Amino acid sequence: MSDPIISFKSADILNGEETVIFGLDMDIREGDFVYIVGKVGTGKTSIIRTIIAENPLYKGEASVCGFQLNGIKTKEIPYLRRKLGVVFQDFQLLMDRSVEDNLSFVLGATGWKDRDAMDKRILEVLKAVGMDTKSHKMPHQLSGGEQQRIAIARALLNEPEVIIADEPTGNLDNETADGIMKLLTRINKERGTAIVMVTHNRSIFEKYPGRVFICKDEHCTERLDNEVIDLALTI
Question: β-pairing, 219-222 with 211-216?
């Protein structure tokens, strides 16, 4: 069995100075599709922030893409994040730049210099998400679903080992959300890219099966087979 891409062992997860999850144990490997679910305020997003080294880890052990989170140096964090693709609920595109310029900006910021290579990579990721005819568009000219596809293309630019998606369908209608889930599922299956997705939408993880971690009562544990999730989640 391959080594985990993400591993937490007896880790306490913070939100600010408050511990919101005690003793997290979680191993995520290549090809996994993992949901983190739970009510608002149960620590789901705090786990994501810890994975990307936005929240510090003081207790327990954790590694992400070969980086130890315990005492990670500030100068190491950009290199860790280059191995991750992050997709947000609100897309976080640069609204004053075209789709192509949004992606070019990320490549430039992560060390790419060859213009031809950058153009080729941008076209590759836009094709992968079905948006290769939209490179000249401004974000405001795109629908919410199209903007999220661009955000997923951005996450793929540096061929990440894992895509971290924090409520990626939260601002989308059901039909558009379904399209985004099909895209993430295809990326997971065809590329072997691990997906870690925070959601409060029960219908999503029931329709698109994966491993499910439940945040509840200051703990986050993996659902056992056929275990009923008794959370007040959105249908």
Answer: antiparallel
Q: Give me the CATH code for the 1-83+160-235 domain, please.
A: 3.40.50.300
Measure Cα distances from 223 to 29, 206, 212, 233 in Å: 17, 13, 6, 15
Q: Is the pLDDT of residue 48 over 80?
A: yes
Which residues, at least 6 apart from 58, have a Cβ–Cβ distance to it below 8 Å? 12, 14, 70
| Domain boundaries of the chain, sorted by first residue | 1-83+160-235, 94-159
- Return the structure tokens found at 82: 């280059």
How far apart CA 200 and CA 198 sit, in angstroms, is 7
Tokens of 132: 């290769």
Model confidence pLDDT, tens digit, residues 62-118: 999 999 999 899 999 988 988 999 998 888 899 999 999 999 999 988 888 899 999
pLDDT digits (tens, 9 = 90+) for 153-172: 999 999 999 999 999 988 88
